[in-house]
Write a structure and sequence with these properties.
Elements: E1 6-9, H1 12-31, E2 35-36, H2 38-41, H3 46-56, E3 59-63, H4 77-85, H5 91-100, H6 107-117, E4 121-127, E5 153-155, H7 167-173, H8 186-215, H9 219-226, H10 233-246, H11 275-286, E6 288-291, E7 294-298, E8 311-315, E9 319-322, H12 328-336, H13 352-366, E10 369-371, H14 375-383, H15 398-401, E11 434-440, E12 444-448, E13 464-468, E14 476-477, E15 481-483
Parallel strand pairs: 1-2, 1-3, 3-4, 4-5, 11-14
Antiparallel strand pairs: 6-9, 7-8, 9-15, 10-15, 11-12, 12-13
Helix pairs in contact: 4-6, 9-10, 10-11
Length: 484
């Protein structure tokens, strides 16, 4: 792309002195190095360089004398129409055809025709009207006839005329503008250059450190990063402090009084745990509610579907169960270390197989016996600490405790704590999303609790259903159990 914004066209034998004068005035006006004047700054092949500069300029100035266009040949119009619209690569071939046809190329005519064809901003500079010359009445060939439609600036065709008298009018009409004044003192240039280089080097180092810092996951990675950190040294130190706080050994997690009682859980953290995973795991474990061993009546007096008749069942060992259904955020951080999704909405559209992968990931990160609940564990927790006549988990009034077909406000999943809990502070054991259990055969597993699309009969504490282990339904999620 040419660096010349202004192109001066003229015929040497007639207006060369005027073109040179105008070129000098432009240089003094701040356009130095941006005006194409062929007597001063043409390099390489003359004709190709002319075309390149003309095609890439913003302003086209043509300086005419009374005789500049007086001898144009009308029979050559076809040639100049071709030259006006051809590509730079096609030009030499057409020029050669003209020579073979005995035609001499008129560069002023070519430049005008091409400037018109390219839609350049054209400023004709022409002599003032006289009895023998009137620019507006010139009869021109089709390839350049539109030149007289351009607004012209007039000069007196005398030796005493100075272009500086009309220069302000020309400059005012230019599409090109001189560059803003730049301080050029040597010392200031050096200082500014050094500052610029230092800023660039600093920014590159800062950006590289930021990317490295953001890629760190485990404690060992942060420790290694901290050895050479400069910009993110304090952030790295904060992260390591969080790691040390979160992974302290022999500190009960779910034990507000720190007495090491039955409701405390000790964790053997994996070295592969990220900071996000540590934080979400501590929250999840803190929300595991202790279910003490005991005996209860499982089933229903009037079984529906896959329910069984009432029978006494004994729970031999204490266990823990999630206060809430597993959330979208919890699932994504554990599975992919990605802080995506809501921490208030339950994860859904996960199969039983994927739920088992989630459980195994939890076991690896904590060394704890996480699991999906058995039907016995699920129903015992749903009925625990409640009236034996409760129909739903926490009440006999379904709308108090359950998001189901008849009570759903928007026909969709609700936040995990949006309804009243049962006696163990377990939310949405009835409704919202059905929850995977361990029981079943190789292809189909039991689900409990019903969902936001279930009927009132399908959200009772004893109702049981099945789903394929590959089923990814928007109505099925999961709740965790932690065995001792």
């Amino acid at each position: 792309m040419s660096r010349y914004d202004i192109f001066i066209s003229y015929r040497r034998r007639e207006t060369a002195d005027k073109a040179e004068h105008l070129f000098t005035l432009f240089e003094h006006e701040g356009y130095k190095g941006r005006v194409s004047f062929d007597r001063e700054n043409l390099d390489g092949r003359f004709d190709i360089e002319i075309l390149n500069r003309l095609d890439n300029c913003k302003d086209f100035i043509v300086i005419l004398s009374p005789d500049t266009l007086s001898a144009i040949r009308w029979e050559d119009t076809g040639w100049y129409n071709r030259l006006a619209y051809c590509t730079v690569d096609e030009f030499p071939k057409i020029e050669m055809e003209m020579k073979k046809a005995g035609r001499i190329l008129d560069f002023v005519r070519l430049e005008i025709a091409r400037a018109l064809a390219k839609g350049k901003h054209i400023i004709p500079i022409v002599p003032i009207n006289s009895p023998t010359y009137n620019f507006d009445d010139l009869k021109l060939t089709d390839d350049i006839c539109l030149l007289t439609k351009q607004h012209a600036e007039r000069y007196q065709d005398t030796k005493d005329f100075l272009f500086k008298d009309i220069l302000p009018r020309i400059v005012k009409r230019l599409k090109s503008h001189p560059p803003k004044l730049i301080l050029t003192k040597f010392t200031l240039t050096i200082v500014l250059s050094i500052i610029l280089i230092a800023c660039m080097v600093g920014w590159i180092k800062w950006n590289n450190e930021k990317n490295f810092f953001q890629s760190c996951r485990t404690q060992s990675e942060f420790e290694e990063f901290g050895k050479n950190a400069y910009f993110f040294h304090s952030e790295c130190a904060d992260s390591l402090s969080c790691f040390k706080t979160l992974v302290r050994s022999n500190i009960p997690i779910n034990d507000a009084l720190n007495i090491g009682g039955k409701d405390s859980i000790r964790v053997c953290w994996s070295a592969d745990c990220s900071l996000k995973q540590l934080r979400i795991l501590r929250k999840m474990i803190n929300n595991m509610m202790l279910v003490e061993s005991g005996t209860f009546i499982m089933g229903s007096k009037n079984p529906v579907g896959l329910e069984e008749f009432e029978r006494h069942v004994t729970i031999e060992d204490d266990y823990y169960i999630g206060k809430f259904e597993v959330s979208e955020l919890e699932w994504n951080i554990i599975m992919s270390d990605s802080a995506f999704g809501s921490d208030h909405l339950p994860i859904a559209e996960v199969s039983w197989k994927e739920s088992q992968q989630f459980v195994r990931k939890l076991q690896t990160l904590t060394g704890l016996l996480f699991s999906l609940p058995t039907e016995i564990q699920w129903e015992y927790a749903a009925k625990k600490n409640g009236d034996s006549e409760w129909i739903y988990a926490g009440s006999s009034n379904s709308e108090e405790v359950a998001n189901y077909k008849e009570s759903s406000q928007n026909g969709d999943i609700e936040e995990v704590d949006s309804r009243k809990p049962n006696g163990l502070e377990l939310y949405h054991m009835s409704g919202n999303v059905s929850e995977w259990c361990l029981d079943g055969n190789n292809n189909r597993k039991r689900i409990r609790g019903g969902s936001f699309m279930s009927s009132c009969e399908e959200i009772t504490v004893s109702y049981s259903d099945v789903a394929s282990i590959d089923n990814k339904s928007k109505t099925i999620g999961l709740r965790l159990v932690l065995n001792q």
